[in-house]
Amino acid sequence: MAFRGGALWGESAIFGRTAPWPFVQLRFSTAELTLTTAGLDFKKFTFARGDVTSVEERQPFIARGLQIVHHRADYPSVIMFFSGRLDLVMRKLSERGWLVTLYTERGWQWE
Predict the structure, then answer these.
(1) How many domains does the chain have?
(2) Domain containing residue 101
(3) pTM for the full model?
(4) What is the CATH number of the domain that holds 98?
(5) How far is it, in rounded angstroms, from Cα 73 to Cα 63?
(6) Per-residue pLDDT tens for 7-16?
(7) Per-residue pLDDT tens for 26-77?
(8) Three-state DSSP class for residue 49
(9) Beta strands in 11-58 (DSSP E)
(10) For residue 22, which of 4, 55, 69, 87 is within the disulfide window of CB 3.0 to 4.6 Å?
(11) Beta-ladder partners of 69
């Protein structure tokens, strides 16, 4: 399953690098999740299921996005995917067994 969108990555959402739509692809299966950016700032972040704690819905700025919460020391701590079809992406991730969570100001709300 694959979706096009935008991305943000770095040590924080404020100081991160960005790639706009349609230069980012999020591809996932039941075993692996990969976020790939195109263009001058090519990046490829590949995660095995054990690398990812959860995929959180967040809204750091104006747009809602999905932050990949992971424990890979060789990747930036903040990796986010943005899409106009975010609800569909979240549903498809859940269907493939990825833990998708919602982050609210009150704390965690589990789906």
Answers:
(1) 1
(2) 2-110
(3) 0.88
(4) 2.30.29.30
(5) 27
(6) 999 998 788 8
(7) 999 999 999 999 987 899 999 999 999 999 998 766 778 999 999 999 999 9
(8) helix
(9) 17-28, 32-37, 43-48, 52-58
(10) 4
(11) 54
